[in-house]
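Need Phosphoribosylaminoimidazole-succinocarboxamide synthase's 3D structure for a figure. Predict it.
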Amino acid sequence: MTRRRQIYEGKAKILYEGPEPGTLIQYFKDDATAFNAQKKGTINGKGVLNNRISEHIFTLLGTIGIPHHFMRRLNMREQLIRQVEIIPIEVVIRNVAAGSLSKRLGIEEGQQLPRTIIEYYYKDDALGDPLVTDEHIACFGWASQEEMHDIADMAIRVNDFMCGLFAGVGIKLVDFKLEFGRLWENEYARVILADEISPDGCRLWDMVTNEKLDKDRFRRDLGGEVEAYQEVARRLGLLPEGADNVVLDLETQRKKRGR
Ligand code: UDP
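Structure prediction for Phosphoribosylaminoimidazole-succinocarboxamide synthase:
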């Protein structure tokens, strides 16, 4: 394969120039980071699973009319996406108290919230992604009021859909992070869902045991990270029954064939 131009390398993904103008290739790495990249590690096979899980969720969101950047999965670790201008806001949706919310406000982890909360964090590694309000977003022009309206609207619809999707497979959607981007068409930008949706950016707890099936296993040194991600994929019907390591085995075979 010809060498592709790398556009950007993030903590868990690399973006390459795509085959057509306005497209990119999103490559999922096995690298994991936490606490603003102070903790670093590798979860073998994570990228393969996240690529597949994210493909599945974006495809389903498309069927309910959520506009998104995903076009198609190319192989085990790559997907073709539309190039967007990422809005520098991480949108966190919370159904159950956990993580930074529990820490900041002293609310016990696992407490069901009486209503869903949407929070915004300014994407800036040097500042440690600080929590911001609509006022900051408007004041500094990170997104327009209209864009924020669309973002909040989509975030709630995505949350409703994903709560149901995961509840159907015995998983509680505690919280998750979304990112949005501007898709430019003839001087007009429309906001669409971007980035990825995977256990890296969601808190997913088993409905019965509250076992964590997400990146908190890595953050908190609980072990069994890849098994947890595989369990999410398996419950979503993305792994054949009884073939727990099939995704990773396939990748090993592909590498042996040199492709
Ligand atoms: N999250 C994320 N990327 C970030 C920060 C948070 O994907 O840079 C996700 C995280 O996985 C969780 C949700 O957003 O599902 C809320 O995270 P929280 O604010 O509790 O922060 P954390 O405890 O991860 O520091």
